[in-house]
Write a structure and sequence with these properties.
The structure holds 2 protein chains of 2 kinds.
Chain A (H helix, E strand, L loop, with lengths): L1 H28 L4 H6 L6 H11 L5 H13 L13 H36 L4 H14 L3 H15 L22 H8 L4 H36 L2 H8 L4 H39 L4 H10 L3 H29 L1 H5 L2
Helix pairs in contact in A: 1-4, 1-13, 5-6, 5-9, 5-11, 6-9, 7-9, 7-11, 8-9, 9-11, 11-12, 11-13, 12-13
Chain B lengths: L1 H10 L10 H10 L2 H18 L1 H4 L37 H37 L1 H16 L2 H12 L3 H28 L2 H9 L3 H9 L4 H24 L11 H8 L7 H29 L1 H4 L1
Helix pairs in contact in B: 2-13, 3-5, 3-13, 5-6, 5-8, 5-11, 6-8, 7-8, 8-11, 9-10, 11-12, 11-13, 12-13
Classes of the chains: A mainly alpha, B mainly alpha.
Chain lengths: ~325, ~300
């Protein structure tokens, strides 16, 4: 087991170095001199240019610059934003809870709908239910989510007025930032209606962000269930006279869930990149919106740092998924 | 000559059934999947629209009819049949923009898929054929690229190169590269152990001939499926980049950027928002349906 974890961990290091190399090159690939790009339209004098160049280490050879960059990254130093002058890491940490909250609710939505739908489709294979679940999931899978967001907003916010259009909570509430998670903070504040407002702001973005993962989970659950249901031990269980629901829930589902859990873990990448689009439409103050705005403002350290952090989160989650999979499934653990 | 052979075959009552040619067999399996055929039909229509946009579209995509701003679709009150799907905020015909937009989406999809297919096949063949250090190096890079969500990587690339259609297409072809490399490599490694490859090698075929003439044709099935699915994600990513302002720049009639332009009119004019997105959904869905059908038709395991 330790050997398996060690082997898997050793694969992470080159991947991490590769990603730092990518983000390191990113800022150096921008056409033109990086300092002039940072200075913007005002430009810099020759002395100031040399000073900044020395300060930022641009006068050193590339491998030295890369070494400083990686050691900085490992200590959590991702440089400062050109616009706010704040450390990138600090900005990230203040915005990250909003994205986590959204992604978490989206994942809950995706699992709550996708899993039962997939099971149902597999059990009722070939029926109208099966076909409609598969049609819906293929449609969800093909959905341009930024448009889906606008459509839901059009129907539920503009026409029906059921949900708010954007933001995390109604402006009448002033919630102290305790955990950064609006659902928890609004409860802690004790203000009447604050929690309900936070929930209503979360509904549409969660549905939008959860749509593609939901479709993926439903498809995966269906095919995994179909495979398990055709196994001999299921036939034996049925022959023994065990109640049909018990065969499905206790006997089949437990084995069918193994690949599904992996797929759920792998949705983190989809959730984080989908968050860029969802947050942009719903004006959700998370890291996705932050990244896109920084690209618009040409705030390169933020773009560089943000991409690096998101990629690292995905690597870590994928690692955890792989290790869990190895724990659950000995065949993976022992294969080379 | 042809008539005589025809009569002679009909005269013989009992013959073994003629085995289907590979193409017939493929069509037999493909056409039994209704969704796949529907996808193919939709794709054919969209391609037709894209190619003949000049003739199909009722108006120019950039003509601004100043007396017809934000006109609703024709079947609604105040609609006008010369603007079937209504007009946008500067009076451009939405239907015409959608038709010209299909040209852009199909072109970007074609360029991105072809570029990543060619690069992916080359890298995958080299990795699978030579193994060793080259293989490890290529696969490590592929793993790094797979660790990043494709949209994020595409955004990063466009952020470096600057927003434009060409850069977006380039970014999309780079981010879809890993799938082709992996597929080609896996298929190449499977084929390498076959006897026909060994015998060609014994006869004295050069590595290039082995790679491109012997092995590659036998690896094509999964690549065709992946290319079809790659089309759908290319169109989706292109629209997403356009929506974020990182792809096609206004006034180019691109579906994603049409949506971004329409954002501020969500409350007043639903049609400006609805139709471009519907167009993206239908196109992407059609490619996904066809990709699923192709996979079923080309995968010998599912045939039995």
């Amino acid at each position: 087991m330790f050997q398996f974890i060690f082997r898997r961990l050793s694969l992470v290091i080159p991947t991490f170095l590769g990603i730092t190399l990518l983000t390191f090159t990113l800022i150096r690939l921008i056409p033109g001199d990086p300092i002039e790009v940072m200075a913007g339209e005002r430009g810099v004098s020759a002395e100031r240019h040399a000073e900044l160049s020395a300060q930022l280490g641009f006068d050193k050879p590339l491998y030295v610059q890369y070494y400083h960059y990686v050691t900085g990254v490992l200590q959590g130093d991702l440089g400062n934003s050109l616009i706010t002058r704040e450390p990138v890491m600090k900005e990230f940490l203040t915005l990250f809870p909003a994205t986590i909250e959204l992604a978490f609710c989206a994942a809950i939505f995706a699992i709550l709908i996708g899993l039962p739908a997939g099971i149902f489709a597999a059990v009722k294979r070939g029926t109208v239910i099966d076909h409609s679940v598969m049609t819906f999931s293929l449609t969800g899978y093909s959905m341009p989510i930024f448009w889906w967001a606008l459509l839901l907003m059009l129907v539920f916010s503009v026409n029906l007025g059921w949900t708010p259009v954007s933001g995390r909570i109604d402006v009448v509430y002033w919630i102290d930032d305790v955990t950064g998670f609006m659902l928890i903070d609004s409860l802690l504040s004790g203000e009447e209606g604050a929690f309900a407002s936070a929930v209503s702001h979360l509904i549409l973005p969660s549905i939008v962000l959860g749509t593609i993962p939901m479709a993926v989970i439903a498809r995966m659950t269906r095919s995994s269930m179909l495979e398990v249901l055709s196994e001999d031990y299921i036939r034996t269980a049925r022959a023994k006279g065990i109640a049909p629901w018990r065969v499905i829930v206790i006997h089949a589902l437990r084995n069918a869930l193994i690949p599904v859990i992996t797929v759920i873990g792998l949705q983190v990448g989809i959730l984080l990149s989908g968050a860029i689009l969802t947050e942009t439409v719903f004006a959700w103050p998370g890291i996705g919106k932050w990244l896109i705005e920084s690209i618009g403002r040409r705030d390169y350290p933020v773009v560089q740092g943000g991409i690096l952090i998101v990629a690292c989160i995905i690597i870590v989650v994928n690692l955890l998924v792989d290790i869990t999979y190895g724990i659950v499934n000995p065949r993976i653990r022992h294969s080379r | 000559m042809t008539t005589s052979t025809k009569t002679s075959t009909t005269d013989i009552p009992l013959t073994a059934p003629v085995p289907m040619t590979p193409l017939q067999e493929f069509w037999h399996y493909f056409s039994s999947n209704k969704g796949a055929v529907a996808g193919l039909v939709v794709i054919a229509i969209i391609c037709f629209m894209a190619v003949f946009a000049n003739f199909v579209a009722p108006h120019s995509p950039s003509d601004q009819y100043r007396d017809a701003l934000l006109l609703p679709p024709a079947w609604l009150d105040g609609g006008n049949w010369s603007f079937v799907l209504g007009t946008d905020d500067v009076g451009r015909d939405i239907l015409s923009r959608l038709i010209y937009g299909s040209r852009l989406s199909i072109a970007v999809g074609l360029v991105a898929v072809t570029a990543s297919l060619i690069m992916g096949i080359l890298l995958g063949l080299v990795a699978g054929y030579f193994r060793g250090m080259i293989d490890t190096a290529i696969m490590r890079i592929v793993d790094i690229m797979l660790a990043m969500p494709s949209l994020l990587l595409a955004i990063a690339i466009v952020a470096i190169l600057g927003p434009s259609i060409v850069n977006a297409a380039l970014a999309i072809s780079i981010v879809s590269l890993p799938h082709y490399v992996r597929l080609t490599r896996a298929a190449t490694m499977a084929e390498m152990s076959r006897d026909y490859v060994t015998s060609s090698r014994v006869i004295g075929a050069s590595p290039l001939r082995l790679m491109f003439v012997c092995i590659l044709p036998n690896c094509l099935a999964p690549l065709i499926v992946q290319a079809t699915l790659g089309f759908s994600s290319a169109i989706l990513d292109m629209a997403a980049l356009g929506f974020l302002g990182l792809g096609a720049q206004p006034p180019t009639p691109e579906w994603g950027s049409m949506l971004a332009d329409a954002l501020q009119f969500v409350q007043r004019a639903w049609w400006v928002v609805t139709f471009p997105g519907l167009m993206i959904l239908i196109t992407v869905l059609a490619f996904n349906l066809m990709g699923d059908g192709l996979r079923d038709a080309l995968d010998p395991k599912l045939k039995q």
